[in-house]
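Q: My labmate handed me this sequence with no annotations at all. I'd like to see what the chain might look like in three dimensions before we decide whether it's worth expressing. Could you predict it?
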Amino acid sequence: MREVYLDNCATTRTDPDIAAAALEAMITDYGNPSSLHRKGLEAQLLLERAREQIATVLSCQPEEVYFTRGGTEANNLAILGAYSAHRRRATHLVAGQGEHASVLGPLKHLGEQGAEVALTPLLAEGHPDPQEMSAAVGEGTLLISCALVNSEVGGLAPIGEFARTAKAKSGRVLIHCDAVQAFGKIPISVDKLGVDMLSLSGHKLHAPKGIGALYIRKGVRIHPLMHGGQQQRGLCPGTESVPLAVAFGAAIEKITCDINRNFENYQRLRKFFLKKIENFPGLCINLASETTPYICSTSLPGYKSETLVHFLAERGMYVSGGSACAKGKDSHVLTAMGLPRERIQSALRVSFCKDTTEQDIDLFFQTLAQAAACIARSRA
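A: Here is what I predict for the chain of 380 residues:
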């Protein structure tokens, strides 16, 4: 049975070359990067090389990049760390209703601790309403958090517009961007976006799980979430995972050198995908425009997402019903977009990677047709 993996927003397959780079660091450059001997220095140099690779792509300084265990830790560090550092002057936080759970979770926690949290509506285009976002910002606003690319439908948010408007209303407001689903797929410049913090994750671009990073603009003050070491200026204490950092840096260098060619391929695949939908009875796209081409959210009303996902998986076809962190619950993103319940409960998220082909998409539609026919027969 041929396997087709189309759940790349949940995670990507680790590239063999990237895995080899991590293995080399594990068995050869195994020193603790904080140690003062030669093996420690070798590990430290590898760590700094990976930091430079990230900084080059973001157009920032290496000292503005902090390694984390992934995107969730980066988002939590940005939000909770900023609130802890600045809560005496401001306690108002703003985000969109369609943010990832790793943003909404810490915001909910802070709301329970007394912070004022404003969650603005989501447009049909899959990103927060710029007017509502602007209206929510005041002199007492501490932080705005917004994903550059929505993890479920691919909506591309106008972060630069949000940042300019917010800074004009309150010069001290901090802008945090969750770029986990965008990094390595579209060009990103922290200066052009106008952000103060930006979260990244390695396993979305063919690096192993367990490594991410947080960009923090020089001069922005946040508090650590943990204590007990001076690694990474005390902000992310604990011995750094050099092999994972090396893998992250190698993955970034490999994928970003082909970023334009990959993006053109995503556009071609999405066009092919949308054409196939036209000939599939009942199947609809949940976001037709203003989206990134590597995420396709569809719905087949009358068929439960969970049932379809399991049927497809049994035949080697891997997609999801939405964000992996939702664990099968109704999508809060599609709900915030105002879609009917039958669309929400039948949603399938198909997400491409650099290796996805038209043949993969063809097989997806063939297998989905089999699933629909089989389920229909079982109801007869």
